[in-house]
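Re: the multi-chain job from yesterday

Posting the exact lines I submitted so nobody has to dig through the queue logs.
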Amino acid sequence: MINENEILETMEMFSNQHLDIRTITMGISLMDCAASSVEESCNKIYDKICRYAGRLVEVGDEISRKYNIPIIHKRISVTPVSIVAAACGATDYTPFAKALDKAAVDCGVNFIGGFSALVHKGYTNSDKNLIESIPEALASTEFVCSSVNLASSRTGINMDAVRDMGRIIKATADRTADTGALGCAKLVVFANAPEDNPFMAGAFLGPGEPECVINVGISGPGVVKHALEKVRGEDLGVVAETIKKAAFKITRVGELVANEASDRLGVPFGIIDLSLAPTPAVGDSVARLLEEFGLEECGTWGTTAALAMLNDAVKKGGIMASSSVGGLSGAFIPVSEDEGMIAAAMSGGLKLEKLEAMTCVCSVGLDMIAVPGDTTAETISGIIADEMALGTFNNKTTAVRIIPVPGKGVGETVEFGGLLGTAPIMEVNKKSCADFINRGGRIPAPIHSFKN
Amino acid sequence: MNDEKNTAVITVLGQDRVGIIAGVANLLAEYDINIINISQTIMDDLFTMIMLVELRDIKIEESDLSERLKTLGDDLGVKITIQHTGLFNAMHRI
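And the result, structure tokens for all chains:
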């Protein structure tokens, strides 16, 4: 029995509080698309993706109409291309990115993730080829996203790869300078990358995943903020309870959509990713949600504590609602994609160092951060190394998606448009870490006992 | 309200005027859609109607019905939404 208040509350969530399903992402294994020539492999990849995901967008739209729920993105993630391409004999993997791009266009999805490599312990020749191909691949495609896993809690941090990715990020920025280094917005490096993440730019289908799977990413910072507005002045125990209840409801919507999509497409349902993913729209901001805790501006003292509690309460509510929670599951703090974060960064109150502290307690990491174009490759590697250490040593996923915008400096902004938003260029500590980065090698895995 | 499997909730929100219920009911009758329950109130001057309807054996595609109701809402100056009952059960029941 549903009562009127519940119906009206639901209406309100969708109409005024920006509740939506952020993405239905179909994971497709490309393991059987390896071939001894680039052309043959690319043809197999294109054909397989179109065969599996041909109806994805149509089905997403049908579900959206049935429940009157906005489903913002339909996307595809695939097996890391460095694995699939290993046998092709070529060193330039750009044709693989182009095949993925063409499949994305023909399936009508707005991103395809998996131009990826997993190098947390070391490089294969194919991993090296893939990484060197990233700048050209991202410059010559529109919808392809790339990710590289550089570290894990079991293996430590591959510092050779950290060094190389600083250089690759700079090269990607230069190759896409005419679009404000947009290529870097589609490139993310990870520690402890989840294999079932539906969110871009980091989505890929890990080697332990099934042939084809539906993963769903939910959102809803606006819903949680609205719930908190009703308990202003109450103690933090009440706040935690309120967040859990809101997260429960949001997750249930995700599970409903995931099950329905799985049935209609005849593909197993994998996971729900419980992330609070902001958009640049007013009322859909994680920063504003944190401010609702009682902070004058996101980034001030207390922000990390509030974020830690938010992230934890979202997980607790969501895990009660679904037994299939996976992916990143937490609160995202991408600067350019969050209206409140943009405002706090522009006012100078939110700095890179504070964001780094915040990434210790949330998913995922330093995300959509624009820095001056003259930031060196070694400094970018240094920022990555610190973030990898936070993930590796604290047993969590962390990531860096950083954009050194050519020709721009602190105080300027770069406009990416759409959900990628607007990024204020943030100040970076300029003292050199080059000698540290250029040492290379591996930071050994942390001890998993004696935790203090 | 009844939460049978193939049912949907139609909500109408907006300024009260003559003919809202008649408009919605006529449209539903046109496609053989049975109304199971209706409740209507005025909250803060806002006309609020919630209707539970049966979707079995109806003579229109569900997605087309959603479009027709939306257009009708535009004509009547109110917001009409149809959502499958499964959504409310998922969100509000453990």
